[in-house]
């Protein structure tokens, strides 16, 4: 056996690769990189690793908050990336057609045969998918979908009545109940088969994958930054994992297949099927399946988050909870009166103010997945960003900025009521409401926003109409501002005490 000892020049090569080159690269990044004029924490500007570490540990929002306080509205957080807290970001970046998503975040998951709507970076491909799917989620289609939403809200209330009456002293984790409801609604809207979470009061096995699917976006981005690591990662990934991803894809594919053969019914999928049958658009079943997974993830997780945050803020602000409960219980004598039409802003102002205020304080997507500047560069929020610069819009930090809102960190639904917006003596009169865009704007904005609003209004209104809610001392309080973020907030639980309302 011969032992192979590297010759001295091999050592030199290794040292250059692993030590000298990174040091030179870091120095270049700090002093000579086109972004070196933009302020930022030096370690972060020098190497991307620090940023990646922050993302993987869920601290990116809290970390960015500190930097913006120290360095201002535009901060360099990685060698080629800036973070922005400025209201002009909407017009300058999100509405600008030449700005696209950073492809490093959207490598297909191993085992998935196609990218869905989120990963459709190419504008033509994206426009094609969006044109096919979005007509299923307009305010008009919502009218015919209302019975489905009412059905699952009723089921939620019924199940909660059973559980609460059986065990009145036990605190409830309301996040779970919202999770069940929003998932079940999507099962029905897309596949004509609910996931039966509410029915069994437990998660469907498929949901476990979806939780990880969202979180995996963050992990999946790492190989995008370090292609060699991606190579190792793919080699190391256990085949069982790839198999599981494929199986879940197949599960949805089968559901879609059954749905395509089923009778016509007024759900979201019916619009998509009609468009496909009319051959107005072409899309593969694989892409449709992944898009369906994207939609379930994007739509249920976010809506459940918003509802959980609402309840969390309300039980910790009993006076606001009282205001809302009073509005609902004086206006509606019977559950059946709470239709989507009756819950509009003009008819139920406090309810809508609570939703607006929660979306301001705890936007379910606290920062937008990175965008990238075109090769010629672009002026964004007053700063020229050279080509290929990655930029992140900090939705949450913008909503919490004292430059845009009076007392930004206090939960005050009243700021959204006409008494504040039209009274110059109100301290909230100068609040800049157009800054708050929880659904984003422009070609990639959320087309599920009407459905989301409908679900939020219906579920919150009917819940508070039927139950008295209270915070509980038995479980630790959830402080939203301290939650970790992996694209979405990692909400472990919001515990409340519930009582069936005395009538
Ligand atoms: C309160 C609830 C919701 C919030 C806060 C929210 C927020 C957002 C945001 C900020 C984006 C843009 C992401 C980006 O630019 O990278 C987005 C995109 C999207 N949302 Fe929502 N969303 C919600 C509910 C829903 C619902 C109910 C659906 C169901 C159809 C949905 C489907 C989508 C889809 C398909 C996209 C991608 C659009 C595209 O790329 O063209 N969302 N959402
Ligand atoms: C609710 O669902 C999300 C994913 O959609 C998951 O991350 C979270 O752990 C669930 N929360 C609870 C309390 O079950
Ligand atoms: C809500 O309650 C607070 C405190 O009780 C009160 O000051 C405020 O005016 C109320 N708002 C409305 C719209 O009733
Ligand atoms: C932009 O950056 C990526 C990754 O650093 C690189 O692969 C790509 O070639 C660059 N594109 C341009 C136009 O500079
Ligand atoms: C509340 O939010 C909705 C949707 O974003 C918006 O249309 C409405 O104007 C907001 N209300 C106020 C008073 O700003």
TrEMBL record:
Q: Which UniProt keywords apply?
A: Heme, Iron, Membrane, Metal-binding, Monooxygenase, Oxidoreductase, Transmembrane, Transmembrane helix
Stored Pfam families: p450 (PF00067)
Q: Does the keyword Zinc-finger apply?
A: no
Q: Which CDD domains match?
A: CYP60B-like
Q: Which residues cross the membrane?
A: 12-32
**Needed cofactors:** heme
Where, by residue number, does heme bind? Answer: 446
GO molecular function terms noted in the UniProt entry: heme binding; iron ion binding; monooxygenase activity; oxidoreductase activity, acting on paired donors, with incorporation or reduction of molecular oxygen
Q: Which family does it belong to?
A: Belongs to the cytochrome P450 family.
Q: Provide the protein name.
A: Cytochrome P450
> What is the species listed in this Swiss-Prot or TrEMBL entry?
Podospora fimiseda
């Amino acid at each position: 056996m011969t032992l192979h000892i590297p010759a001295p020049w091999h050592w030199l090569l290794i040292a250059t690769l692993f030590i000298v080159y990174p040091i030179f690269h870091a120095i270049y990044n700090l002093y000579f990189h086109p972004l070196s004029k933009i302020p930022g924490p030096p370690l972060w500007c020098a190497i991307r690793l620090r940023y990646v570490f922050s993302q993987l540990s869920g601290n990116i929002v809290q970390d960015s908050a500190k930097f913006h306080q120290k360095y201002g509205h535009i901060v360099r957080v990685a060698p080629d990336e800036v973070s922005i807290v400025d209201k002009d970001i909407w017009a300058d970046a999100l509405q600008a057609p030449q700005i696209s998503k950073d492809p490093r975040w959207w490598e297909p998951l191993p085992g998935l045969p196609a990218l869905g709507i989120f990963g459709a970076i190419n504008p033509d491909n994206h426009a094609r998918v969006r044109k096919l799917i979005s007509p299923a989620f307009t305010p008009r289609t919502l009218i015919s979908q209302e019975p489905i939403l009412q059905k699952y809200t009723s089921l939620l209330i019924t199940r909660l009545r059973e559980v609460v009456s059986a065990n009145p002293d036990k605190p409830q984790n309301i996040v779970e109940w919202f999770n069940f409801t929003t998932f079940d609604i999507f099962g029905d809207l897309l596949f004509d088969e609910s996931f039966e979470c509410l029915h069994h009061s437990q998660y469907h096995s498929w949901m476990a994958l979806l939780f990880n699917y969202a979180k995996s976006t963050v992990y999946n981005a790492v190989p995008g930054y370090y292609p060699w690591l991606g190579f190792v990662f793919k080699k190391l990934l256990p085949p069982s994992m790839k198999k599981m991803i494929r199986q879940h894809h197949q599960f949805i594919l089968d559901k879609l297949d059954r749905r395509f053969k089923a009778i016509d019914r007024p759900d979201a999928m019916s619009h998509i099927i009609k468009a496909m049958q009319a051959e107005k658009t072409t899309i593969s079943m694989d892409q449709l399946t992944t898009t369906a997974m994207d939609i379930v993830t994007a739509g249920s997780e976010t809506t459940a988050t918003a509802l959980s945050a609402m309840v969390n803020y309300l039980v910790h602000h009993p006076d606001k909870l009282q205001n809302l409960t009073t509005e609902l219980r004086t206006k509606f004598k019977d559950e059946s009166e709470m239709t989507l039409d009756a819950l509009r802003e003009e008819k139920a102002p406090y309810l809508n103010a609570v939703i607006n205020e929660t979306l301001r304080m705890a936007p379910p997507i606290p920062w937008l997945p990175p965008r990238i500047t075109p090769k010629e560069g672009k002026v964004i929020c007053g700063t020229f960003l050279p080509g290929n610069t990655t930029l992140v819009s900090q939705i949450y930090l913008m909503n919490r900025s004292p430059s845009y809102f009076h007392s930004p960190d206090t939960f005050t639904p009243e700021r959204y009521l006409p008494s504040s917006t039209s009274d110059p003596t109100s301290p909230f009169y100068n609040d800049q409401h157009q800054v708050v865009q929880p659904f984003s704007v422009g070609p990639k904005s959320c087309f599920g926003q009407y459905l989301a609003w409908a679900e939020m209004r219906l579920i919150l209104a009917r819940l508070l109409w039927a139950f008295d809610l209270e915070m509980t001392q038995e479980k630790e309080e959830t402080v939203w501002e301290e939650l970790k973020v992996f694209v979405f907030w990692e909400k472990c639980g919001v515990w409340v005490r519930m009582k069936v309302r005395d009538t």
